[in-house]
Amino acid sequence: MAGVPEITKPFNHPSMDEEEEDLFNRQSTTSDRSSSTPLSPECSPYNMSPWHQMPNSFPDDNEVYAGGGELLPRGTSLLGSLVREEGHIYSLAAISGLLYTGSDSKNIRVWKNQKEFSGFKSSSGLVKAIVISSDRIFTGHQDGKIRVWKMSPKNPSVHKRAGSLPKLWDYLKGSIKPSNYVEVRRRRTVLWLKHYDAVSCLSLNEDQGLLYSGSWDKTFKVWRIADSRCLESIIAHDDAINSVVSGFAGLVFTGSADGTVKAWRRELQGKGTKHNHAQTLLKHDCAVTALAVSPTAPVVYCGSSDGVVNFWEWERQLSHGGALRGHNQAVLCLAALGSLMLSGSADKTICVWRRDGGNHTCLSVLTGHTGPVKCLAFEEEDAAAGRWTVYSGSLDKSVKIWRVLEQSPEALLRGPTSGGGGGLIDST
């Protein structure tokens, strides 16, 4: 595919200490490309923003460059900050006015109206991922465990441990059969239905009642939410999996420290599932650190350690749509909401991108964190106005709360228009 670097030589993961792994997920290499190529002020998202002026033309129609900006456009605002000096923020989830935060203190805090509302604590393993399905909260941990929590129907401030994945009975029953063991290292075998390294990511497909978990053990597993059964385990990559997301057209996407993004096609077989490799979207020498799927269009985004966000569009098959360049350090997290896509980075900023068909405009850069932005979550405030509440968690131990608009206030007053704003990607 045009515009996508192809490197066929496998890349091995070098040794790194735990602090480096936690900062950049698990990555096979770091790239000096972003640090060696300064971004010009003329290409900053603020200057490219429709709230400022039309930008200069770009040298490559397939790429958009964006740099640092200090001012927020009208309609975008910082609503507040949540700080609790107990650890770096690694994971977020938001639902019905409640915000769940996970940190390396092993605590899951619950916030309401910018105040601490409740909390619960795991016995071990920093909290790397949180997803919520109805009254159940699933948390992925550094110790390789997926824990399940339930909210009290009578008192939403009370959360109780409901078990873990796999269930103890399934684990004990599976351990009896030698055929259930797989070799993971020389002279070491483990049960196929249990992760043996950090659970780095979780994704829900509530329509199918499935939970996906990705791990540094190079596998992703498929769980049936109704009975907590592990249906399938797929050895998907040559290195750690940093992101998994359930997408459109029966596809599941995985991104890895081996520098690849893969698409897997889901087939339902009786009460089980079968996932087959459908396509490798990206193969390069920079670790893939984050994935996101647009909720309003068949588009998948990929962030990597070189600071670039690539995206692919679906029309019978996935094709590369372009690259968004808004950061000078690794992209650590992505979130897709409405027509917007947000990218958080080790450079301590968040870029807000708006998609219009196959084009993307960088609306603004959100600044204020003093550490890398590790995770993002969001809730819809007003669908008609395209207004969202966005939460950003950082290794500076804080969560910042933002109000973000899909359009400028002036555009909302004018109504819908044809044509694009500044700083667009032309995918044709």
From TrEMBL:
<feature type="compositionally biased region" description="Low complexity">
    <location>
        <begin position="28"/>
        <end position="40"/>
    </location>
</feature>
<keyword id="KW-0853">WD repeat</keyword>
<feature type="repeat" description="WD">
    <location>
        <begin position="192"/>
        <end position="233"/>
    </location>
</feature>
<protein>
    <submittedName>
        <fullName>Uncharacterized protein</fullName>
    </submittedName>
</protein>
<dbReference type="InterPro" id="IPR045182">
    <property type="entry name" value="JINGUBANG-like"/>
</dbReference>
<feature type="region of interest" description="Disordered">
    <location>
        <begin position="1"/>
        <end position="62"/>
    </location>
</feature>
<feature type="repeat" description="WD">
    <location>
        <begin position="324"/>
        <end position="353"/>
    </location>
</feature>
<dbReference type="InterPro" id="IPR036322">
    <property type="entry name" value="WD40_repeat_dom_sf"/>
</dbReference>
<feature type="repeat" description="WD">
    <location>
        <begin position="366"/>
        <end position="404"/>
    </location>
</feature>
<dbReference type="InterPro" id="IPR001680">
    <property type="entry name" value="WD40_rpt"/>
</dbReference>
<feature type="repeat" description="WD">
    <location>
        <begin position="281"/>
        <end position="313"/>
    </location>
</feature>
<dbReference type="InterPro" id="IPR020472">
    <property type="entry name" value="WD40_PAC1"/>
</dbReference>
<dbReference type="InterPro" id="IPR015943">
    <property type="entry name" value="WD40/YVTN_repeat-like_dom_sf"/>
</dbReference>
<keyword id="KW-0677">Repeat</keyword>
<dbReference type="Pfam" id="PF00400">
    <property type="entry name" value="WD40"/>
</dbReference>
